[in-house]
Design brief:
Largest sheet: none
Strand content: under 5%
Order of helices and strands: HHHHHHH
Shape: globular
Helix content: over 70%
Number of strands: 0
Radius of gyration: 16 Å
Number of helices: 7
Length: 178
């Protein structure tokens, strides 16, 4: 029972890439997507409630999140690439994230992905992407997600630059000024 949060996280890390081999919006896609999405919501909550949080668990969760969000995003990428400006936007966000992680690695000698509120919002929106496409036009979903992802990436970069110590659980840039 003590390993349940990490088992959920590890299962998401392993299963989420299988989304790439499934037809988006198919029954199997929805089943695997739903499991991965729900496990992402539950693993951290369980770890905190059971008092089983750890640095390893937080790092594992970050990698599992990247695995899941990347798989969901790449599943829909062919449909989204019709808009060429999206390519530029994605590259800008990716470059900001890369620079942030590079600075974090040089500064802290560790992978420095943060669990800020904005990063969680982006994760939730990325994870919700298939559901959002069902209820809203793709252009609106991409505009909202892209804007929040850009602001989130910039916030993480600023936190990484300004912070003296790595705190993966820092909730926002405003905590830097306390």
């Amino acid at each position: 029972m003590n390993y349940l949060p990490n088992i959920l996280t590890t299962s998401r890390l392993i299963l989420a890439p299988l989304l790439l081999f499934l037809q988006p919006m198919s029954g199997w896609f929805w089943l695997l997507y739903s499991y991965s999405f729900l496990s992402d919501l539950v693993d951290g909550l369980l770890a905190r409630r059971m008092n089983l949080t750890s640095e390893v668990g937080a790092l594992l969760d970050s990698f599992a999140d990247v695995s899941f969000f990347l798989a969901v995003f790449l599943s829909f990428l062919p449909q989204l690439l019709a808009a060429h400006t999206l390519w530029v936007w994605l590259l800008v966000i990716a470059m900001i994230r890369f620079v942030s992680y590079l600075i974090g690695y040089v500064k802290y000698r560790s992978f420095s992905s943060l669990h800020t509120w904005l990063n969680k919002a982006v994760g939730f929106l990325l994870g919700s992407f298939p559901l959002l496409l069902v209820v809203s036009p793709a252009k609106i979903v991409v505009l909202i997600l892209g804007t929040i992802a850009t602001v989130s990436a910039l916030e993480e970069l600023l936190i990484t630059i300004l912070s003296k110590n790595l705190d993966r659980n820092q909730k926002s840039i405003f905590e830097s000024f306390k």
